[in-house]
Amino acid sequence: MSSTVIDSLRELLGSEHVLLPGALPPQDLAGYHQDWRKRYNGRALAILRPADTAQVAAVVRLAREHRISLVPQGGNTGLVGGGVPDPSGTQLLLSLRRLQQVRRLDAANHTITVEAGCILQQVQEAAQQAGLLFPLSLAAEGSCTIGGNLSTNAGGTQVLRYGNARELCLGLEVVTAEGEIWDGLSGLRKDNTGYDLRDLFIGAEGTLGVITAATLKLYPQPRARMTALAACDSLQDAVDLLNLTQSRCGAALTGFEVMNALSLALVARHFPQLPQPLGPRPWTVLLELSDSEGEAHAREQFESVLEQALERGLINDAAVAETLAQSQAMWHLRESIPLAQSEQGLNIKHDIALPVSRIPGFVASCDALLARQFPGAGLVNFGHLGDGNLHYNLQAPPGVAPAEFLREHEHAVNALVYDQVGTHGGSISAEHGIGQLKRDELAQRKSPVALQLMRQIKQALDPLGLLNPNRVV
Ligand SMILES: Cc1cc2nc3c(=O)[nH]c(=O)nc-3n(C[C@H](O)[C@H](O)[C@H](O)COP(=O)(O)OP(=O)(O)OC[C@H]3O[C@@H](n4cnc5c(N)ncnc54)[C@H](O)[C@@H]3O)c2cc1C
């Protein structure tokens, strides 16, 4: 059967866009078969590279006819193993990367309509060329795609002001599990015509349909951006600094990131060329203000807040970027933490959300429990404090092989951390999604009613279960 399907796929897409794993060297396949964290290694029946929405729809219809499952993939930077095939060699990997057109930029409506395979950075640049801002921003922006961003409802560093991918999307074009094309590319900010289909596909991680294009919101470019690093003795001080800055600067506060000492020590170890203006501190906060009135106003606001924070003892040192290069270097520091962790070796990652007010209590109790149960393990704790989102990651104690630590303790570490997250009213996935990594946790921790509703939605939109099976639910 599969040779008939492959022949039909070749006819549809052209042979050069139907890659067969057996015919290619493993290094050419790793970018498709292995996830970014190198935790999951799959093998596809074939890797398909359609050029446009019509080809995607035709592929879905063919796969449906032959009852073959499909795994959509964008830039393959996802962190929960959602975009790589399983090892069976029976799934089709549907790469969206060739859908790269910017279809329309409507400056007066502040929208841009792009295809799913557009790299996030390209979308930011297209907006910038029109004097506008597409604010979604994350460390993987040079390789992740808009389709992947929407399918994971990505967050990133500007959520505090602009919201996550869901809030930045006004419309979608989707190929359904039946192989039909739903054109929902409205640029409307108001549209109360029944159930919100768009919101079903956003964050669905490719399990309900294949996103082929999106209409996204654009914003005016801020006239000035100011970045600073501030040193805090405790996480409670960092939370108080957040509240002080929000009360003084309101929506001008666009970024509020926190990094613990070990996060920055890892960056110093693996990227010693990156300057760390404040040196080692228990907690370092990165703040960013975006101002529509200009640089002098932004600087004045920033300096006044930092002075007040110093007086109140919330911070004990600060460095304000004087140039764009210094500001970029500060962000680079923050964005290098996941890469430094990856250089350090496998670690147990938690992308968790908590009410901001409960973060200090959560960290105090969870740190203490982990230290008691896993002595010597390192806590790499950093993230988007302004959004209540921590990347709370555990690395093996010195002298213990990371892979061995993971194999022996991952389950117990996760149980401990997620129990604490539950106790403190949080979520086990803030922005990375569920994928394969957290599917079983979700089944245990989501309410039975919510799970039942999610399964009913999956059954209604993909009754044959062919779209990214065994992910999410
Ligand atoms: C260094 C680094 C930093 C990161 N920082 C952040 C961060 O700050 N915030 C954050 O939220 N994430 C972050 N991520 C995670 C990742 O970049 C995001 O999840 C991103 O949105 C994934 O996009 P992608 O194109 O790579 O998707 P992929 O990894 O290819 O796929 C992700 C999921 O979406 C599905 N999918 C992909 N394209 C489509 C489509 N067109 N239609 C339907 N389903 C599709 C896949 O099946 C899979 O389930 C980071 C990752 C790295 C490596």
Question: Can you put this structure into words, describing what you see?
Answer:
- With 473 residues, the protein is an alpha+beta fold.
- It folds into four domains: 2-95, Uridine Diphospho-n-acetylenolpyruvylglucosamine Reductase, domain 2 (2-Layer Sandwich); 102-220, Uridine Diphospho-n-acetylenolpyruvylglucosamine Reductase, domain 3, CATH 3.30.465; 224-338, Alpha-Beta Plaits, CATH 3.30.70; 345-442, Alpha-Beta Plaits, CATH 3.30.70.2740.
- The chain has 16 helices and 18 strands.
- The protein has helices at residues 2-13, 26-33, 53-65, 120-129, 146-151, 159-162, 197-201, 235-249, 261-270, 295-311, 324-335, 337-344, 359-373, 402-423, 439-445, 448-461; strands spanning 18-19, 46-48, 70-73, 92-95, 102-106, 111-115, 132-133, 169-176, 181-184, 209-217, 219-220, 224-232, 253-260, 283-291, 317-320, 351-353, 378-384, 389-395.
- The strands form four sheets. The chain has a seven-stranded antiparallel β-sheet, sandwiched between helices. It has a five-stranded antiparallel β-sheet with strand order 5-6-10-8-9, sandwiched between helices.
- A hairpin with a 4-residue loop joins strand 5 and strand 6.
- The relative contact order is 0.11.
- The structure holds flavin-adenine dinucleotide (FAD).
- Residues 36, 71-79, 82-83, 96, 116, 138-140, 144-145, 147-149, 151-152, 154-156, 205-206, 210-211, 338, 431-432, 435, 468, 471 line the site of flavin-adenine dinucleotide (FAD).
